[in-house]
Amino acid sequence: IAGITQAPTSQILAAGRRMTLRCTQDMRHNAMYWYRQDLGLGLRLIHYSNTAGTTGKGEVPDGYSVSRANTDDFPLTLASAVPSQTSVYFCASSVLASSTDTQYFGPGTRLTVL
Amino acid sequence: KQEVTQIPAALSVPEGENLVLNCSFTDSAIYNLQWFRQDPGKGLTSLLLIQSSQREQTSGRLNASLDKSSGRSTLYIAASQPGDSATYLCAVRFAGTASKLTFGTGTRLQVTL
Asked: Which of A31, A42, A107 sits opposite B42 (nearest CB)?
């Protein structure tokens, strides 16, 4: 069982380009999340999805979009990348079972926008 | 605003020492609090989850406590080892925020020989 996989591992991107970060989980979890991690700011939620077909905005959604066509996949798209989107991006998933909900994290994607 | 704070940002201790990491949060209405470990360049690994109704959780040499009324949690690590060196993150699921976790900025722990 792989858990959560993310691709690519790292990417250098020119400003203005479109980029999709991929996330796949094989645990049949209902909920999935995208976070970005920046030095001194910790992890901040970008978007989330409580179940396939639904998505919601997190703390820092501007410049990002997501879709949840099925249970396993939750891609994050940067329509037109800007340097401030340079960060490490983590995908996570959880069963979404009230007070015992534990989130499981992928290995991350390191994105540099020049 | 619902916030989570971890102090200190970094800590260095000699091997074998018992240590405590601190986490504070601004709203006592929470579903749960979770402690994670993050190794350099890696993702997060869940260590312990304490539900709102619980006071503590234990796993091996780790013990996490929760005091909602004071908005505090501690992670106690017994007999520290060099392999414990990592960043430890505290995250709170505040009530009314669905499944959203609010993270602290972490404490970077180094255990020296």
From this structure: A107
Tokens of A106: 């992928």
The answer to whether the CB atoms of B104 and A42 lie below 8 A apart is yes
Give strand pairing partners of B24: B5, B72
Across the interface, of B32, B43, B52, the residue whose CB is closest to A106 is B43
- A-B contacts (CB, under 8 Å): 64
Question: Which three-class secondary structure state does DSSP give residue B72?
Answer: strand
pLDDT digits (tens, 9 = 90+) for B67-110: 999 999 999 999 999 999 999 999 999 988 767 899 999 999 99
Residues of B in contact with A49 (CB under 8 A): none
| Residue from the list B31, B91, B98 with its beta carbon closest to the beta carbon of A99 | B31
* C-beta of residue A78 within 8 angstroms of C-beta of residue A19: yes
Distance CA A88, CA A19 (A): 14
Q: Chunked in runs of 10, what are the mean pLDDT values of chain A (114 residues)?
A: 89 97 95 93 92 93 97 97 97 78 92 97
First CA to last CA across chain A, in angstroms? Answer: 36
Beta strands in chain B (DSSP E): 4-7, 10-14, 19-25, 30-38, 44-51, 56-59, 62-67, 72-77, 86-94, 102-103, 107-112
Residue A15 forms contact with B (CB below 8 Å): no
Asked, as a colleague might, if the bond just before A8 is cis with ω within 30 of 0, I would say: yes
